[in-house]
């Protein structure tokens, strides 16, 4: 295996870009982020890795884990250390010293007191891997926006589509100052076991590709291989990291995998959340089967009409309603006990990725002159469930009415 140092030197020489450090920043340390950071740290020659934490409490928890990340393979924990950490506080990133002896003496110190601000000249991020949910991404990127440049590469490991278009509109409207993007489709099965510990429950892969924005047929983009040095480096680093089982694909190739996952999420994810049930309960269920077929008619029509996919042979077959239906039934029968991440998010009163799943179909359908009313209804049903859950919780907060001072009621003050 080539070492990351060798890769950095080779790419610097090939692209005439001296000064690459090869450091990888990772943000969003849930299942996907923990697995990727752990995999990079497991290489024979790990690159320098910085974990970006958006709250000091995350670092306290990480310290309690002796600054290690764990992945449980076949019942055995594999722990990895050696990560650098930066914590966001008052919109400023603070670097936590890796040998925090001062902190060791104190059980629950204010970590930020001994932390130093990341100096501006050292704050530049070359490679950023974003592993948070789609709806958090805009906020996450705003927090590091000043540390990114057109030389940086951001890799998004997320389900759902439409995130990059949103970032371009809201954060990077100027094409010239925009960082480079990559996307990854992660199919490893991961389950949270504890903070900073995930169980690897299914072997999968990580498919990677640089992103080309715009709506030209993506098949044209395959001729363009002029990727930024940081994009080349990140691609090489990840594809040479054995536990990720990562491969590189073309922008047109990865979009097709993303669309298959999107179709699964739009149907299994949303219906599992609306019915509050596991995958197996959606199988052999006639009304669910009717709903599924109707939803897939809209999903398939939008996908087959996408200008990005024009010119790619076999699109109508790959994305026909019947093929998508079989794909979804396969996922549900292979993982009958799984519960959708939308259902989980609702359970923990978090936002959901629905706007980047059925919401994306509705939005792209509108652009193509198609009204996807069923997907719109599914999106609204998930949003209304979230509204009901949140309001139920809010109204359950006990209020001491005897001590409430109503506006205009001065008698309590007197
Ligand atoms: N799990 C899988 O097996 C799997 C497989 C393939 C793809 N995916 C996709 O990968 C993406 C991530 O999934 P996941 O399961 O890893 O999600 P997750 O476990 O919910 O992890 C997201 C992490 O991001 C953190 N976060 C939230 N806001 C942040 C901020 N402002 N700055 C930094 N970090 C922030 C969250 O912290 P809090 O706890 O504070 O919210 C959480 O630790 C999703 O799009 C998912 O669909 C997951």
Descriptive labels:
oxidoreductase, 414 residues, 2-dehydropantoate 2-reductase, 10-stranded mixed beta sheet, Rossmann fold, NADP binding, 4-stranded mixed beta sheet, binds NADP nicotinamide-adenine-dinucleotide phosphate, 16% strand, globular, single chain, alpha/beta, 2 domains, N-(1-d-carboxylethyl)-l-norvaline Dehydrogenase, domain 2
Shape: globular
Structural class: alpha/beta
Point out poorly predicted stretches: 410-414
Amino-to-carboxy terminus distance: 78 Å
What is the number of independent domains? 2
Tally the helices: 16
Q: Spell out the CATH superfamily of the largest domain.
A: NAD(P)-binding Rossmann-like Domain
The distinct bound ligands, ions and cofactors come out as: NADP nicotinamide-adenine-dinucleotide phosphate
Largest sheet entry: 10 strands, mixed
Mean pLDDT, nearest integer? 89
CATH architecture grouping of the largest domain: 3-Layer(aba) Sandwich
What is the topology, as strand order, of the major beta sheet? 7-6-5-2-1-8-9-10-13-14
- Helical amount: 40-55%
Strand content: 15-25%
Number of strands: 14
Rg, nearest Å: 23 Å
Order of helices and strands: HEHEHEEEEHHEEHEHEEEEHHEHHHHHHH
CATH class of the largest domain: Alpha Beta
Topology-level CATH name of the largest domain: Rossmann fold
Protein name: 2-dehydropantoate 2-reductase
Domain Ketopantoate reductase C-terminal: 254-382
Pfam families: ApbA (PF02558), ApbA_C (PF08546)
Domain Ketopantoate reductase N-terminal: 24-209
